[in-house]
């Protein structure tokens, strides 16, 4: 997957610094780094589905260190309990009161590693955090600190002892994509960089959390024309009527695609969204939000193929009506 971003575009300086800093650790994966930052700016979350050892953990750690953010890691296992994620109240014998001990979900940047290896009950503990930005324990709702960004991983090869994520859980992730193997030259560069010391150990913050929160506020104000909104709705609706689809993308997918388009336009240095932004982001936003019917599965039709067909069949708005 190659970067779709125009290198000649003059972008927000903070964005360039953030991308370049993460690339000191993650070699040759600029498009994937950019998608992660787009999700971060739009308040969304990412599901990485890839084999072990391609740099999933390093990428999320590098993003956290580049922001000077509090990084937390949750290693999902079959015996993990919901309270291990959200936190638990413990009785303090000195004060004779219960005190809440926050779980690892209470970080700025959270790595949910191998999320499909834990039980559905524990997976469900993430739902409220991903959608509402809060967790409820002991009958009390606690707001999560901002910014809050979750990058979850799962292995697409080993399915033994795993619990596939239900549709409601998948729908909470803004993007789903893979990192993939590096090229030979990129892998050689990786070896050269880690020969004496891993670059993640010396990575320094390049922007502050306050800078990030300000950019998130700016993203909300990026203009989306009615024609672009109609294009988003047409794409999402086309997934519901495709002959290979049993369950199409929900209205939450429309919202996600619009929010992602705003963040993408901001990264591109624009204050308005164009249809090409939506077209580029649609595969990462829609593929994991549809269910194929049994005939499609028997015919080896994939979610990726369906979304590509949908993008081809839906007319793109033309002219200047999509820009201010």
Automatic annotation (TrEMBL):
One of its GO terms (molecular function) is hydrolase activity. InterPro entries: ATPase_AAA-3, CbbQ/NirQ/NorQ/GpvN, ChlI/MoxR_AAA_lid, P-loop_NTPase. Residues 238-309 form the ChlI/MoxR AAA lid domain. It holds the Pfam family AAA_3. Keywords: Hydrolase. CDD domains: AAA. It comes from the Bacteria. SUPFAM superfamilies: P-loop containing nucleoside triphosphate hydrolases. Residues 45-175 form the ATPase AAA-3 domain. Its EC number is 3.6.3.-. This is MoxR-like ATPase. It comes from Evansella vedderi.
